[in-house]
């Protein structure tokens, strides 16, 4: 199965799975400040606050999406 990104490029389902399991700070190279900005931006956009004690739950792309879905 393949999917098309907004820029028109196509990727396999395995690529989507890789992105979903990507670790925000290590694999996507977000430093601490970038990570906090991401959490703050998501909070403003969704109304979902992520307390520091829950940062482990939002360490991956999937974890972040699931967390927002569960708390939003």
TrEMBL record:
It comes from the Bacteria. InterPro entries: ACP-like_sf, PP-bd_ACP. Residues 21-68 form the Carrier domain. SUPFAM superfamilies: ACP-like. Transmembrane segments: none annotated. This is Acyl carrier protein.
